[in-house]
Design goal:
- This protein is mostly beta strands and 127 residues long.
- It has a domain of 84 residues.
- The strands form 3 sheets. Strands 1-2-10-11-12 form a 5-stranded antiparallel sheet, with no helix packed on it. The chain has a 5-stranded antiparallel sheet with strand order 4-5-8-3-9, covered by helices on one side. A two-stranded antiparallel ribbon has the order 6-7.
- The model has no long low-confidence stretch (mean pLDDT 92).
Length: 127
């Protein structure tokens, strides 16, 4: 999978199926630390493990439960929401969703508002 970097926080991903949510619920235990080390604990939004590139952004308020604009809930336990290619051998749980994009799409973070193509997850909401 090739991820094109537009700016240091804006990326273009190829069409395909992805698991959207906290990658800690998808990535196998033995792959978790190598993934985190590959991207400085997602201080750089793109990590790699087992030949798969994973993109994730930090949530504004850390762990919890966040919703997209359609009311889908995503559980967060690592302070991250991102995309894991569906070909990775992990699981989908804790509200992670299998999503499919028919063409390349952009992803970016704007003050806690996370954009994954047409999916928007606001992690900077006021209680």
């Amino acid at each position: 999978m090739n991820i094109q970097t537009i700016t240091n926080q804006r990326f273009v991903l190829p069409a395909g199926k992805y698991v959207l949510g906290d990658p800690c619920y998808v990535i196998q235990d033995e792959d978790w630390m190598p993934l985190l080390n590959s991207c400085d604990y997602f201080n750089q939004p793109i990590g790699e493990v087992g030949g798969f590139k994973i993109l994730a952004f930090g949530t504004k308020h850390g762990d919890g439960c966040y919703q997209d604009q359609h009311g889908n809930e995503f559980g967060v336990d690592a302070g991250l929401i991102g995309l894991v290619p569906a070909g990775y051998r992990g699981q989908t749980s804790h509200g992670n969703k299998l999503v499919e994009f028919s063409s390349q799409f952009e992803c970016w973070e704007d003050d806690g508002v996370l954009h994954f193509g047409d999916r928007i997850i606001d992690t900077n909401f006021e209680e």
